[in-house]
Amino acid sequence: MSRKPSRAERPAQALPAARRDQQRRARAELEFDDPAILGTLFGQFDANLVHIENRLGVYISARGNKVQIEGPEDSVARARDVLKSMHERLETGQDVDSGAVEALITMSAEPTLEGIISGESDSPPIMIRTRKKTIVPRSAMQIDYMRALAKSDMIFALGPAGTGKTYIAVAQAVSQLMTGSVQRLILSRPAVEAGERLGFLPGDMKEKVDPYLRPIYDALYDCMPPEQVERRIASGEIEIAPIAFMRGRTLGDAFVILDEAQNTTPAQMKMFLTRFGQNSRMVICGDPRQVDIPGGDAQSGLADAVRRLEGVDGIAMIRFTVEDVVRHPIVGRIVEAYEGVGA
Fold first, then answer.
1. pTM over 0.85
2. What domain range includes position 38?
3. What are the strands, taking DSSP E only, across the chain?
4. Are strands 128-129 and 281-286 parallel, antiparallel or unpaired?
5. Which CATH number is 104's domain given?
6. Best-predicted range by mean pLDDT among 158-162, 313-317, 328-332?
7. Same domain, 135 and 270
8. What is the CA radius of gyration of the chain?
Protein backbone atom coordinates (compact mmCIF):
# COMPACT_ATOMS: atom_id res chain seq x y z
CA MET A 1 0.00 0.00 0.00
CA SER A 2 1.50 3.33 -1.07
CA ARG A 3 2.05 6.05 1.52
CA LYS A 4 1.49 9.74 0.90
CA PRO A 5 4.79 11.59 1.43
CA SER A 6 4.97 13.57 4.63
CA ARG A 7 5.32 17.33 4.52
CA ALA A 8 8.98 17.02 5.47
CA GLU A 9 9.56 14.72 2.48
CA ARG A 10 7.79 16.90 -0.10
CA PRO A 11 9.82 19.50 -1.99
CA ALA A 12 8.67 23.10 -2.01
CA GLN A 13 6.23 23.73 -4.88
CA ALA A 14 5.23 26.93 -6.55
CA LEU A 15 1.59 27.94 -6.48
CA PRO A 16 -0.41 28.05 -9.76
CA ALA A 17 0.82 30.51 -12.39
CA ALA A 18 -2.45 32.45 -12.42
CA ARG A 19 -2.06 33.27 -8.73
CA ARG A 20 1.69 33.85 -9.13
CA ASP A 21 0.97 36.64 -11.55
CA GLN A 22 -1.49 38.44 -9.25
CA GLN A 23 1.12 39.90 -6.93
CA ARG A 24 4.83 39.74 -6.12
CA ARG A 25 6.00 36.31 -5.06
CA ALA A 26 8.41 35.67 -2.22
CA ARG A 27 10.17 32.85 -0.44
CA ALA A 28 11.36 32.83 3.16
CA GLU A 29 13.28 30.28 5.21
CA LEU A 30 13.25 29.84 8.98
CA GLU A 31 15.67 27.77 11.03
CA PHE A 32 14.72 26.80 14.58
CA ASP A 33 17.33 26.13 17.26
CA ASP A 34 15.29 23.71 19.36
CA PRO A 35 14.19 20.72 17.25
CA ALA A 36 12.62 19.05 20.32
CA ILE A 37 9.57 21.31 20.11
CA LEU A 38 9.08 21.17 16.34
CA GLY A 39 6.51 18.38 16.62
CA THR A 40 4.33 20.57 18.80
CA LEU A 41 5.03 23.59 16.60
CA PHE A 42 3.92 21.83 13.44
CA GLY A 43 0.98 20.06 15.12
CA GLN A 44 -0.27 16.52 14.74
CA PHE A 45 -0.03 15.52 11.07
CA ASP A 46 1.28 19.07 10.43
CA ALA A 47 -2.14 20.48 11.30
CA ASN A 48 -0.76 23.87 12.35
CA LEU A 49 1.18 24.28 9.11
CA VAL A 50 -1.84 23.28 7.04
CA HIS A 51 -3.98 25.79 8.92
CA ILE A 52 -1.50 28.60 8.22
CA GLU A 53 -1.32 27.57 4.55
CA ASN A 54 -5.10 27.60 4.15
CA ARG A 55 -5.61 30.90 5.96
CA LEU A 56 -2.75 32.84 4.34
CA GLY A 57 -2.56 31.25 0.91
CA VAL A 58 1.07 30.11 1.16
CA TYR A 59 2.91 26.83 0.74
CA ILE A 60 5.05 25.59 3.64
CA SER A 61 7.61 22.79 3.44
CA ALA A 62 9.62 21.48 6.37
CA ARG A 63 12.85 19.54 6.43
CA GLY A 64 14.58 18.91 9.75
CA ASN A 65 14.66 22.16 11.70
CA LYS A 66 14.25 24.31 8.58
CA VAL A 67 10.95 25.59 7.22
CA GLN A 68 10.47 27.19 3.80
CA ILE A 69 7.49 29.40 3.00
CA GLU A 70 6.46 30.40 -0.52
CA GLY A 71 3.62 32.57 -1.76
CA PRO A 72 2.51 36.20 -2.09
CA GLU A 73 5.02 38.53 -0.48
CA ASP A 74 2.72 39.89 2.25
CA SER A 75 1.37 36.45 3.09
CA VAL A 76 4.86 34.97 3.36
CA ALA A 77 5.84 37.71 5.79
CA ARG A 78 2.74 37.05 7.90
CA ALA A 79 3.29 33.28 7.92
CA ARG A 80 6.93 33.79 8.95
CA ASP A 81 5.87 36.03 11.86
CA VAL A 82 3.20 33.54 12.95
CA LEU A 83 5.66 30.62 13.01
CA LYS A 84 8.28 32.66 14.89
CA SER A 85 5.71 33.74 17.48
CA MET A 86 4.45 30.16 17.90
CA HIS A 87 8.03 28.99 18.48
CA GLU A 88 8.67 31.74 21.05
CA ARG A 89 5.53 30.75 22.94
CA LEU A 90 6.61 27.13 23.08
CA GLU A 91 10.09 28.11 24.27
CA THR A 92 8.55 30.00 27.21
CA GLY A 93 6.33 27.05 28.18
CA GLN A 94 3.07 28.38 26.77
CA ASP A 95 0.55 26.24 24.95
CA VAL A 96 0.01 26.60 21.22
CA ASP A 97 -3.43 25.20 20.46
CA SER A 98 -5.60 25.80 17.40
CA GLY A 99 -7.09 28.89 19.02
CA ALA A 100 -3.65 30.40 19.61
CA VAL A 101 -2.63 29.69 16.02
CA GLU A 102 -5.78 31.35 14.69
CA ALA A 103 -5.27 34.33 16.99
CA LEU A 104 -1.68 34.79 15.82
CA ILE A 105 -2.79 34.59 12.20
CA THR A 106 -5.38 37.30 12.86
CA MET A 107 -2.84 39.45 14.67
CA SER A 108 -0.27 38.98 11.90
CA ALA A 109 -2.14 41.62 9.92
CA GLU A 110 -0.81 44.11 12.49
CA PRO A 111 2.61 45.47 11.49
CA THR A 112 3.87 45.36 15.10
CA LEU A 113 3.25 41.66 15.74
CA GLU A 114 6.89 40.80 16.44
CA GLY A 115 7.23 43.69 18.88
CA ILE A 116 4.00 42.75 20.61
CA ILE A 117 5.07 39.19 21.30
CA SER A 118 8.80 39.61 22.02
CA GLY A 119 8.97 43.26 23.08
CA GLU A 120 10.55 46.23 21.36
CA SER A 121 14.05 47.21 22.44
CA ASP A 122 12.84 50.30 24.29
CA SER A 123 9.72 48.85 25.96
CA PRO A 124 8.75 45.67 27.82
CA PRO A 125 6.66 43.02 26.04
CA ILE A 126 2.91 43.20 26.49
CA MET A 127 2.01 40.29 28.73
CA ILE A 128 0.43 39.43 32.07
CA ARG A 129 2.31 37.02 34.33
CA THR A 130 0.39 34.96 36.86
CA ARG A 131 1.43 32.08 39.11
CA LYS A 132 0.32 29.45 36.58
CA LYS A 133 0.79 31.04 33.16
CA THR A 134 1.79 34.05 31.11
CA ILE A 135 -0.94 35.67 29.03
CA VAL A 136 -0.08 37.53 25.83
CA PRO A 137 -2.56 39.32 23.54
CA ARG A 138 -4.41 37.07 21.11
CA SER A 139 -6.14 39.78 19.09
CA ALA A 140 -5.32 43.34 18.07
CA MET A 141 -7.88 44.83 20.49
CA GLN A 142 -6.49 42.77 23.38
CA ILE A 143 -3.27 44.75 22.93
CA ASP A 144 -5.13 48.00 23.66
CA TYR A 145 -6.99 46.28 26.51
CA MET A 146 -3.81 45.11 28.24
CA ARG A 147 -2.29 48.55 27.89
CA ALA A 148 -5.40 50.14 29.40
CA LEU A 149 -5.38 47.65 32.29
CA ALA A 150 -1.80 48.67 33.05
CA LYS A 151 -2.37 52.44 33.16
CA SER A 152 -6.06 53.46 33.46
CA ASP A 153 -7.95 53.70 36.75
CA MET A 154 -11.27 52.57 35.29
CA ILE A 155 -11.76 50.45 32.17
CA PHE A 156 -14.96 49.55 30.35
CA ALA A 157 -14.49 46.38 28.27
CA LEU A 158 -17.37 46.07 25.82
CA GLY A 159 -18.06 43.36 23.28
CA PRO A 160 -19.28 39.83 22.53
CA ALA A 161 -18.50 36.60 24.33
CA GLY A 162 -15.16 34.96 23.64
CA THR A 163 -13.07 38.12 23.34
CA GLY A 164 -11.26 37.65 26.67
CA LYS A 165 -12.81 40.60 28.50
CA THR A 166 -13.26 38.93 31.88
CA TYR A 167 -10.40 36.43 31.62
CA ILE A 168 -7.74 39.07 30.93
CA ALA A 169 -9.14 41.34 33.66
CA VAL A 170 -8.93 38.50 36.19
CA ALA A 171 -5.38 37.68 35.05
CA GLN A 172 -4.33 41.31 35.53
CA ALA A 173 -6.00 41.35 38.94
CA VAL A 174 -4.17 38.18 40.01
CA SER A 175 -0.87 39.58 38.73
CA GLN A 176 -1.30 42.77 40.75
CA LEU A 177 -2.25 40.81 43.86
CA MET A 178 0.88 38.65 43.45
CA THR A 179 3.13 41.72 43.17
CA GLY A 180 1.46 43.47 46.11
CA SER A 181 0.30 46.52 44.12
CA VAL A 182 -3.22 45.83 45.46
CA GLN A 183 -4.19 44.12 48.69
CA ARG A 184 -7.36 42.38 47.56
CA LEU A 185 -9.46 41.37 44.58
CA ILE A 186 -13.18 42.07 44.49
CA LEU A 187 -15.00 40.24 41.72
CA SER A 188 -18.69 40.91 41.26
CA ARG A 189 -21.55 40.13 38.93
CA PRO A 190 -25.33 40.71 38.80
CA ALA A 191 -26.99 37.64 40.29
CA VAL A 192 -30.31 37.97 38.45
CA GLU A 193 -30.23 36.92 34.82
CA ALA A 194 -32.61 35.72 32.14
CA GLY A 195 -35.65 36.02 34.40
CA GLU A 196 -34.30 33.82 37.20
CA ARG A 197 -34.35 35.24 40.72
CA LEU A 198 -32.29 34.12 43.70
CA GLY A 199 -35.29 33.48 45.91
CA PHE A 200 -36.39 30.59 43.75
CA LEU A 201 -33.03 28.82 43.99
CA PRO A 202 -32.35 26.25 46.73
CA GLY A 203 -29.64 26.59 49.40
CA ASP A 204 -28.05 29.39 51.38
CA MET A 205 -26.84 32.64 49.84
CA LYS A 206 -23.46 31.25 48.76
CA GLU A 207 -25.13 28.28 47.09
CA LYS A 208 -27.60 30.64 45.40
CA VAL A 209 -25.01 32.99 43.88
CA ASP A 210 -22.13 30.61 43.10
CA PRO A 211 -23.62 29.40 39.77
CA TYR A 212 -23.77 33.00 38.52
CA LEU A 213 -20.15 33.60 39.52
CA ARG A 214 -18.77 30.34 38.08
CA PRO A 215 -16.96 31.99 35.11
CA ILE A 216 -15.02 34.17 37.54
CA TYR A 217 -13.98 31.14 39.61
CA ASP A 218 -12.88 29.37 36.42
CA ALA A 219 -10.64 32.28 35.41
CA LEU A 220 -9.12 32.43 38.90
CA TYR A 221 -8.34 28.71 38.93
CA ASP A 222 -6.67 29.10 35.53
CA CYS A 223 -4.32 31.79 36.90
CA MET A 224 -3.66 30.49 40.43
CA PRO A 225 -3.35 27.05 42.06
CA PRO A 226 -6.76 26.03 43.47
CA GLU A 227 -5.48 25.80 47.04
CA GLN A 228 -4.24 29.40 46.85
CA VAL A 229 -7.58 30.58 45.50
CA GLU A 230 -9.43 28.92 48.38
CA ARG A 231 -6.95 30.20 50.97
CA ARG A 232 -7.17 33.76 49.72
CA ILE A 233 -10.96 33.62 49.58
CA ALA A 234 -11.01 32.37 53.18
CA SER A 235 -8.67 35.19 54.28
CA GLY A 236 -10.69 37.86 52.47
CA GLU A 237 -7.94 38.75 49.98
CA ILE A 238 -10.26 37.56 47.21
CA GLU A 239 -13.94 38.38 47.48
CA ILE A 240 -16.48 37.08 44.99
CA ALA A 241 -19.97 38.43 45.54
CA PRO A 242 -23.09 39.67 43.72
CA ILE A 243 -23.32 43.40 43.08
CA ALA A 244 -25.90 43.91 45.84
CA PHE A 245 -23.13 43.21 48.38
CA MET A 246 -21.21 46.30 47.22
CA ARG A 247 -23.75 48.82 48.55
CA GLY A 248 -22.48 51.19 51.24
CA ARG A 249 -18.82 50.23 50.86
CA THR A 250 -15.65 52.02 49.71
CA LEU A 251 -13.45 49.66 47.71
CA GLY A 252 -9.95 50.95 48.40
CA ASP A 253 -6.56 49.36 47.65
CA ALA A 254 -8.31 46.80 45.48
CA PHE A 255 -8.67 45.52 41.95
CA VAL A 256 -12.41 45.45 41.32
CA ILE A 257 -14.10 43.65 38.42
CA LEU A 258 -17.78 43.79 37.48
CA ASP A 259 -18.71 41.07 35.00
CA GLU A 260 -21.92 40.85 32.90
CA ALA A 261 -22.39 44.56 33.56
CA GLN A 262 -25.06 44.87 30.87
CA ASN A 263 -27.46 43.22 33.33
CA THR A 264 -27.22 46.02 35.89
CA THR A 265 -29.76 48.81 36.13
CA PRO A 266 -28.56 52.45 35.93
CA ALA A 267 -29.05 52.75 39.71
CA GLN A 268 -26.95 49.64 40.37
CA MET A 269 -24.22 50.83 38.01
CA LYS A 270 -24.05 54.26 39.65
CA MET A 271 -23.87 52.61 43.08
CA PHE A 272 -21.06 50.31 41.94
CA LEU A 273 -18.96 52.96 40.19
CA THR A 274 -19.13 55.29 43.18
CA ARG A 275 -17.60 52.58 45.41
CA PHE A 276 -14.23 53.40 43.79
CA GLY A 277 -11.56 54.04 46.42
CA GLN A 278 -7.91 55.11 46.75
CA ASN A 279 -5.21 53.01 45.04
CA SER A 280 -7.81 50.96 43.20
CA ARG A 281 -8.51 49.84 39.67
CA MET A 282 -11.98 49.02 38.38
CA VAL A 283 -12.88 47.00 35.27
CA ILE A 284 -16.45 46.81 33.99
CA CYS A 285 -17.04 44.00 31.48
CA GLY A 286 -20.15 43.39 29.42
CA ASP A 287 -21.86 42.98 26.08
CA PRO A 288 -24.31 45.86 25.51
CA ARG A 289 -26.17 43.74 22.94
CA GLN A 290 -26.83 40.82 25.30
CA VAL A 291 -29.07 42.35 27.98
CA ASP A 292 -31.00 39.84 30.13
CA ILE A 293 -32.59 42.19 32.65
CA PRO A 294 -36.06 40.82 33.58
CA GLY A 295 -38.90 42.88 32.17
CA GLY A 296 -37.54 43.35 28.67
CA ASP A 297 -37.83 47.15 28.53
CA ALA A 298 -35.51 48.01 31.45
CA GLN A 299 -32.54 50.22 30.58
CA SER A 300 -29.10 48.69 30.91
CA GLY A 301 -26.82 50.38 33.40
CA LEU A 302 -23.85 49.57 31.18
CA ALA A 303 -25.20 51.43 28.15
CA ASP A 304 -26.20 54.35 30.39
CA ALA A 305 -22.73 54.52 31.98
CA VAL A 306 -20.93 54.38 28.64
CA ARG A 307 -23.09 57.22 27.31
CA ARG A 308 -22.40 59.38 30.38
CA LEU A 309 -18.70 58.60 30.86
CA GLU A 310 -17.36 58.50 27.31
CA GLY A 311 -14.35 60.82 27.16
CA VAL A 312 -14.01 61.30 30.93
CA ASP A 313 -10.35 61.60 31.93
CA GLY A 314 -8.96 58.43 33.53
CA ILE A 315 -11.67 56.16 32.06
CA ALA A 316 -10.78 53.90 29.11
CA MET A 317 -13.36 52.45 26.74
CA ILE A 318 -12.25 49.24 24.97
CA ARG A 319 -14.64 47.98 22.30
CA PHE A 320 -14.24 44.41 21.05
CA THR A 321 -15.93 43.10 17.90
CA VAL A 322 -16.57 39.67 16.44
CA GLU A 323 -13.10 39.83 14.82
CA ASP A 324 -11.60 39.74 18.33
CA VAL A 325 -13.24 36.45 19.37
CA VAL A 326 -10.39 34.14 20.42
CA ARG A 327 -12.28 30.99 21.31
CA HIS A 328 -12.89 28.34 18.66
CA PRO A 329 -13.36 30.08 15.26
CA ILE A 330 -16.95 28.82 15.13
CA VAL A 331 -17.77 31.05 18.14
CA GLY A 332 -16.99 34.11 16.06
CA ARG A 333 -19.20 32.86 13.27
CA ILE A 334 -22.04 32.20 15.71
CA VAL A 335 -21.75 35.71 17.18
CA GLU A 336 -21.68 37.19 13.69
CA ALA A 337 -24.77 35.21 12.65
CA TYR A 338 -26.76 36.33 15.69
CA GLU A 339 -25.72 39.95 15.30
CA GLY A 340 -26.71 39.90 11.66
CA VAL A 341 -30.22 38.48 12.28
CA GLY A 342 -32.71 40.80 13.89
CA ALA A 343 -29.97 43.12 15.11
1. no
2. 7-118
3. 25-31, 59-63, 66-72, 128-129, 134-135, 154-158, 184-189, 238-242, 254-258, 281-286, 315-319
4. unpaired
5. 3.30.1370.10
6. 313-317
7. yes
8. 23
